[in-house]
Each structure stands twice: as C-alpha cells, then as structure tokens.
Amino acid sequence: MSTSTIGELISLLFMAIALGMDAFSVSLGAGMQKIRLKRIAIVGIVIGLFHMIMPFLGIVVGQAISTRIGDFTTLVGGLVLVGIGTQMLLSAFNHESRQVIHTAGFGLLIFALSVSIDSFSVGLSLGISGVKTALALLMFGAASMVLTWAGMLLGRKVHGLLGVYSEILGGSILFGFGLHIIFG
C-alpha cells in the first residue's frame, strides 16, 4: 500500500467518524427511551444504510445541480432535530409515557433521514474530489452504524440511572444538536 492510499484511508476514516457523530449524539437522546436491543440493532443498520445512500444521492445530484442545495439540506435536518427535541421536552412535562421518536416504520425512516441528511452535502463534494466512492460509502455506513449503536446503548444506560429525567436530557440533546446544525 502506498503512502497516498494510506493517507486517503485515514482521511476517509476521520470523515466517516465525523459524519457518524451526529448519529451518535441523536442516538444518545433516542436511546433514553425504552427501546429493546433488537430495535437498537435495526435502527443502527437503517441509519448506516442512510449514511451510504445520502452521500451516493449527493454524488449523483451534485453532478446535475449546484452545491447551493447543501445549505438547504443542513437546515432541514437541523429543524427536524429541533422539532423532535421540542416534542420530547414537552412530552416529559406532559407526564405521559409515550415514545416520541418512533424507531419503527415511517418514524424510523424520518429519524434516519434527519441524522444522515448532512451526508448528502458531503456527497456533493465527494463526486468532485475523485475519492474512491464505494470505499467512502462503506466507511460512512459502518461508522455511523457503530456510533448509532454506541449512542443508543449509552443512552439506555443513562435512562436507567436518571429515570424520568432522561427524557428531558434526551430532548435537550436533540434540541441542542439541531440548533448546532442550523447555526453551525
């Protein structure tokens, strides 16, 4: 392996971890709800797939449209997380025991889309840079899947320690992360 290939692998690994950190943060908040281990595994896989699909779509769309769309997708992703976080905070004070982030069906797709939408804009730039696309997509998917699992499992442990306050903490994490995405 040449030095340039190793350098490219290392930079792709760091990029994959950076892209997966939003999935970790959001999954930390989501894991504070009562979610079974089987569902956590499925959520991680779906988010990993979305972290492969979104950059791929970004590559395809990036060849046809200007890069201005990247700012719009980031804003939408941030607004979705702020909305979910707000809903979690409000339901914590509403004293109703219900799951705010739905980790099955359409809710899972919206959840996965909200944490992977920023990778769409990364895909826009990947198509231009000439990076090994298949390797990058696999690394993005694997890193986000593992980080999602780690976040949800850690959130699950914190829920056991904090009890009813875990939903407030989880909602605050999602809300704050959404604001961070919007305002950078």
From TrEMBL:
Lineage of the organism: Bacteria, Bacillati, Bacillota, Bacilli, Bacillales
GO cellular component: plasma membrane
Domain of life: Bacteria
Matching InterPro entries: Mntp/YtaF, Put_MntP
Ranges annotated as spanning the membrane: 6-28, 40-66, 72-93, 105-128, 134-155, 162-183
Topological type in the membrane: Multi-pass membrane protein
Record-stated family: Belongs to the MntP (TC 9.B.29) family.
PANTHER family, per database record: MANGANESE EFFLUX PUMP MNTP-RELATED
Any Pfam family: Mntp
UniProt keywords, alphabetically: Cell membrane, Ion transport, Manganese, Membrane, Transmembrane, Transmembrane helix, Transport
Name this polypeptide is given: Putative manganese efflux pump MntP
Residue ranges of coiled coil: none
Function: Probably functions as a manganese efflux pump.
Coarse class of the protein's main subcellular location: membrane
GO molecular function: manganese ion transmembrane transporter activity
Compartments in which it is found: Cell membrane
